[in-house]
Amino acid sequence: MRGCPYGSHRVIEPTGFLPQAAVRIDNSTELYDNEILVDVETLNVDSASFTQIREACRDDESRISDMIMDIVKEKGKLQNPVTGSGGMFIGRISRIGKDLLERDLKVGDRIASLVSLSLTPLRIERILKVHLEKDQVDIVGKAVLFESGIYSKLPSDIPPKMALAVLDVAGAPAQVNKLVEKGMNVAILGGGGKSGVLCCYQAMKKCRDSGKVIVVEYSEENAERIREHKLAHEVVIADATKPLEVYEKIKRLTEGNLCDVVINNVNVPGTEMGSILAVKNEGTVYFFSMATSFTRAALGAEGVGKDITMIIGNGYTKGHAKLALDILRESNEIRRLFQKLYI
């Protein structure tokens, strides 16, 4: 039996929706001819989602496990009801539907999903370990990839959990690569996290000698990480939820010119206006963070008279997985940092 390439056949309610927008989906392991079944080993939970869950559970690993189990039991997928976001997984191919046998995959291959857990049918048998500082959860479970679902075979030269951490945010540095050009002023809000570090590296690669890369960080520890690895020209400590504070510091560092491109990686709500005020008219803001309110961003830009391009943080762009993994291959410092943080 063949299902919809986009997974609508798995939607339980409301009917007519696609899986990401659905309230509940079918997470049974009975496979359609154009689906792939995966034995899941680790979930990499979206940063905004994991931060919200941690705060709600006060960093209690048992309560975090229970909350994640409850979400999946209720929805058939891991979609945070507050943030709406999910994450991704790594696992081994268990079965391949007959219509997809011609793909370059075989049973036993280890892959990372490159589509959100907010639309992926998921069953969790048990949770083995919650990694509070990694946004990762080791589980025994199964997931289904639809025909349209993208994935990446895990590379042999990069440890699986390090690859998972990088692939989860691969869209961010790939978009930086598209948006940033020589001579630009670039601000990266939340530059010290995993997506921020990769964005900083790619921005510096594009305009190291001819532009200015500015990191805005709330955490002194994260700011020091950027300084230590020389991933920006300037690092400022500021609260991204306070737009005028961000604006004044960016204005001073750019001699009033502001930035051509602003990348927002902050995993807490309320940082839209800090990003908007930091960009010049006809500049671009890329909201990678799933904590972004696009209503606040749209109406806020209108309210301050900013004629700017605002890009939703689509986690996919062509070649994004290779570009992100290649950063670890190019930079021993970044690789050592990710090894320390995610292995």
TrEMBL record:
Domain L-erythro-3,5-diaminohexanoate dehydrogenase N-terminal: 9-155
Transmembrane annotation, as ranges: none
Gene Ontology MF: a single term: oxidoreductase activity
Key words, A-Z: Oxidoreductase
InterPro entries, A to Z: KDD_N, NAD(P)-bd_dom_sf
UniProt key word 4Fe-4S: no
Gene3D superfamilies: Medium-chain alcohol dehydrogenases, catalytic domain
PANTHER family noted in UniProt: ZINC-TYPE ALCOHOL DEHYDROGENASE-LIKE PROTEIN C1198.01, ZINC-TYPE ALCOHOL DEHYDROGENASE-LIKE PROTEIN C1198.01-RELATED
Name of the protein described by the UniProt record: L-erythro-3,5-diaminohexanoate dehydrogenase
